[in-house]
Amino acid sequence: MPEGLYLATSKDLPGLVAQGRTATEALEIARDVARKLIEAKVQRSVNINLSTISDAFDYPLIVNA
After folding, report:
1. What span, in angstroms and rounded, lies between the C-alpha atoms of 38 and 23?
2. Which of 6, 17, 33, 35 supports an S-S bond with 26, CB 3.0-4.6 Å?
């Protein structure tokens, strides 16, 4: 496994940036950050337009060798 950090971002949710030591950790942190960002936007009555995703999806993974 490559050493370094993995970064997760989202085009659908501006401001979502998460990093982890593994891809799985980065995605888990991103899920928590997304939840907090959405909760904050709901509290401020900001309209959120998120695309629907299925239970499985593909995502790009870029590894610097």
Report:
1. 22
2. 6
Rounded to the nearest 5°, which phi and psi values hold at 58?
Answer: -95, 145
CB atoms within 10 A of CB 6: 20
- 45 has which bridge partners? none
> Would you call 50 exposed, middle or buried from its count of C-beta atoms within 10 A (0-12, 13-18, 19+)?
exposed
In a domain, 28, yes or no: yes
Residue type, 36: K
Prediction pTM value: 0.64
Residues spanned by the domain of 28 = 6-43
17 within 8 A of 7, measured Cβ to Cβ = yes
